[in-house]
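Below is a filled-in request sheet from our internal design queue. Each sheet records the structural input a requester submitted and the sequence that came back. We keep these sheets so that new team members can see what a complete request looks like end to end.

REQUESTER: design group, bay 2
PRIORITY: normal
MODE: inverse folding
CHAIN LENGTH: 712
BACKBONE (tokenized):
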């Protein structure tokens, strides 16, 4: 059981290393949380190599999701925009805030783009996480037929590496590009060894890069940059590698900062104004002995930060940071050669690049092949959470059949035939429909869990065509110290209440307990005279689905640390996506039958729709929407732990030659899945023109004992 919260903001170079070190030797009673605005954080040393095409994105980025899983760190994917230092809470964009006992900040810096038009028309080299995406867009925009002119602004080591990397990449691809390196100063790489300056100048010349000195950019327009002395350079793109600037929120929060806005820290990396706040890397300045804003210092400070955070929790003596001011500086020259210097010594050649490559690869291996092993349970497979934690359909109906239920003329007591939300009371000819749905937590982010679970529960009423009016919640929170439980409960309930507001539904009560794992369930109520049924499709109907499938198997892969960041991001877009807009559109048209796709997968819910009818369904599997990455993970063999219990449903399907991996996506249990509706062809066309729903199949009259689900 944890008693204290240590929250890390930003997964920069220092924090990546600190989390790895703490994974191997945790701090007693301290829960670790990382808040990061990106799941892949770049390693700056290899960034020019990524731009040049020597390395892939995967090779140059630390996968923070995998790191957190291995290190058993709570991961919150979100962007911090402030700290309430008095109440010890961290504020995020579009999310509930997070409480802390101690906080450490390693959010880096951004280049100075405080020039008119630079934000609008230029590309900042940082945040590097955004640069990688922008770089792909820039590459996609280039054409073989013209010669664009780009300018890299900033003639420091980073600017030089960038401009040479870009030149190399274009030359290798046989594409032409005119490049200028623009700097305000008169000398190339001031302060560097003369030999280094000379080799860099030669490299620029070899690639035909124009060096423009004494040009301080004061304005950027769509097609030009202008200097403060009135010169204009016509260009298509400017890439900004100007000196580091600080984020504004630390100053606004009231933390001591230096004159440039970087967090002022003492020799223990502790804020000079707030002893529970630590900061490291570019975002911080050690006021007594400032260091350059460079990744190498962020890396070297990590062991000191680890020690001092540990000491801070145990009231032990902290260790002052002692870092050399002089360090080996290596600059890659586009291709696989580099120059470097240390003190009076200068180096140049392909061997220097190979040496740098070895240092960089060794660092990255700490987060890939040398990552601490993920925790596993000795004899147990990793059980799925979310809808993958439900019990199978056969087991469910076999058990339900054997139960005695007190008869009541108002209620359907055949539990095996239950609608998504059964009638729970009839008052003055108006039915109260009620549903309960919930599951074991599949995320450490209680706020997002609250959102996904609430959407999920409400879907049962939407599937009946009813506006939910009230809800109750049952929360079972994982055992922690009451201080932490209070924080977790609040975040989780904020997720629930924010989304109930969105669904215009009133929270009227609930119950809370504690246990080994977090669980969350909601009862939702709605009233109406008329509601949609599940088993009423008509011949010739179109079947429409409004959300992609695959959440169960992506969650299963993620539990094992094997899902790609793209698939995790796509998964969360789906989990947090509301069905309300689609439901409101459905309300105004004629629906024959409807259900929501949840624990039994698309196939299971289709079979439920056909149960007791004389119809079958032809599914065009290519039209079924899938979450990005789901099919690939299915091909790799990932599946929810519920899958074996869902397989017997295939006895009712003619699977023809459909790809087995795709069939498993159709069986995959969904958390906050889409609404599946059966409507006439005309209504189907109308719905497709107004919403994102797609036609996945058609209803036909089944013959004799043929299989009722035809996949093609
Ligand atoms: C092209 C280029 C090449 C470079 N090469 C070198 C080199 O070879 N050697 C060297 O020493 N330095 C190099 N640098 C400098 C280096 O990039 C920085 O000094 C280094 O990245 C700083 O590391 P950091 O750990 O402080 O932060 P970063 O590496 O910038 O990491 C900060 C992290 O915090 C996240 N974050 C930011 N804001 C928030 C927020 N509000 N909420 C949540 N998360 C947030 C970011 O997404 C990121 O993951 C280079 C820079 C560039 C641009």
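RETURNED SEQUENCE:
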């Amino acid at each position: 059981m944890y008693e204290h919260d240590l929250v890390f903001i930003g997964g920069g170079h220092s924090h990546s290393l600190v989390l790895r070190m703490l994974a191997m030797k945790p701090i007693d009673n301290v829960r670790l949380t990382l808040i990061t605005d990106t799941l892949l954080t770049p390693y700056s040393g290899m960034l020019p190599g990524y731009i040049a095409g020597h390395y892939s994105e995967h090779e140059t980025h630390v996968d923070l999701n995998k790191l957190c899983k291995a290190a058993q760190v709570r991961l919150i994917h979100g962007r911090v925009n402030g700290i309430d230092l008095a109440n010890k809470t961290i504020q995020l964009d579009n999310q509930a805030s997070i409480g802390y006992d101690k906080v450490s900040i390693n959010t880096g810096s951004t280049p100075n783009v405080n020039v008119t038009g630079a934000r609008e028309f230029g590309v900042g080299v940082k945040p590097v996480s955004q640069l990688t995406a922008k770089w792909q867009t820039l590459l996609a925009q280039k054409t073989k037929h013209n010669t664009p002119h780009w300018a890299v602004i900033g003639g420091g080591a980073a600017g030089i590496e960038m401009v040479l990397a870009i030149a190399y990449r274009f030359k290798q691809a046989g594409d032409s590009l005119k490049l200028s390196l623009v700097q305000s100063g008169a000398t190339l790489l001031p302060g560097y060894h003369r030999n280094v300056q000379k080799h860099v100048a030669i490299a620029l010349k070899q690639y035909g890069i124009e060096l423009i000195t004494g040009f301080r950019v004061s304005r950027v327009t769509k097609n030009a940059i202008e200097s403060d002395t009135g010169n204009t350079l016509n260009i298509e793109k400017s890439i900004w590698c100007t000196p580091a600037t600080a984020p504004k929120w630390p100053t606004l929060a009231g933390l001591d900062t230096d004159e440039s806005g970087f967090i002022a820290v003492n020799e223990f990396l502790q804020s000079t104004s707030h002893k529970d706040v630590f900061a490291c890397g570019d975002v911080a300045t050690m006021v007594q002995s400032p260091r350059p804003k460079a990744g190498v210092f962020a890396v070297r400070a990590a062991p000191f930060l680890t020690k001092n955070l540990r000491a801070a929790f145990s009231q032990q003596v902290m260790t002052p940071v002692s870092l050399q001011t002089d360090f080996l500086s290596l600059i890659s020259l586009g291709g696989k050669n580099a120059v470097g210097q240390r003190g009076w010594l200068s180096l140049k050649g392909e061997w220097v690049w190979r040496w740098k490559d070895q240092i960089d690869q060794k660092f990255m291996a700490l987060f890939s092949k040398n990552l601490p092993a993920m925790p596993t349970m000795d004899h147990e497979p990793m059980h799925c959470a979310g809808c993958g934690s439900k019990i199978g359909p056969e087991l469910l109906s076999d058990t339900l059949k054997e139960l005695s239920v007190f008869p009541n003329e108002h209620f359907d007591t055949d539990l095996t035939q239950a609608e998504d939300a059964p009638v729970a009371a009839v008052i003055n000819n108006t039915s109260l429909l009620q549903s309960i749905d919930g599951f074991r937590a599949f995320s450490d982010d209680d706020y997002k869990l609250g959102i996904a679970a609430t959407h999920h529960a409400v879907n049962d009423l939407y599937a009946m065509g009813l506006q939910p009016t009230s809800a109750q919640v049952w929360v079972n929170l994982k055992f922690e110290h009451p201080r932490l439980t209070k924080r977790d409960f609040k975040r989780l309930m904020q997720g629930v209440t924010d989304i109930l507001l969105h669904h215009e539904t009133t929270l009227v009560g609930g119950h809370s307990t504690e246990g080994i794992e977090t669980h969350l369930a909601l009862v939702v109520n709605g009233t109406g005279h008329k509601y949609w049924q599940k088993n009423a499709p008509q011949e010739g109907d179109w079947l429409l689905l409004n959300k992609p499938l695959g959440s169960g198997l992506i969650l299963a892969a993620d539990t094992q640390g094997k899902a790609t960041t793209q698939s995790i991001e796509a998964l969360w877009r789906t989990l947090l996506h509301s069905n309300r807009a689609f439901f409101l559109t459905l309300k105004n048209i004629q629906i024959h039958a409807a259900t929501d796709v949840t624990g039994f997968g698309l196939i299971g819910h289709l079979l439920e729709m056909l149960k007791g009818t004389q119809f079958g369904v032809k599914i065009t599997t290519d039209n079924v929407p899938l979450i990005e990455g789901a099919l690939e993970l299915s091909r790799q063999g990932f599946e929810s732990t519920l899958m074996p219990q869902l397989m017997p449903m295939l006895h009712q399907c003619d699977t023809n030659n459909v790809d087995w991996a795709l069939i498993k996506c159709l069986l995959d249990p969904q958390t906050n899945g889409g609404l599946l509706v059966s409507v006439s062809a005309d209504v189907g066309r109308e719905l497709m023109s107004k919403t994102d729903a797609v036609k996945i199949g058609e209803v036909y009259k089944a013959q004799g004992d043929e299989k009722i689900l035809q996949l093609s």
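SHEET NOTES:
- The pocket of flavin-adenine dinucleotide is lined by residues 9-14, 35-38, 41, 44-45, 47-48, 79-80, 106-108, 125-127, 129, 158, 161-162, 241, 281-283, 293-296, 298 (CB under 6 Å).
- Residues 482-502 form the longest helix (21 residues).
FILED BY: M.R.
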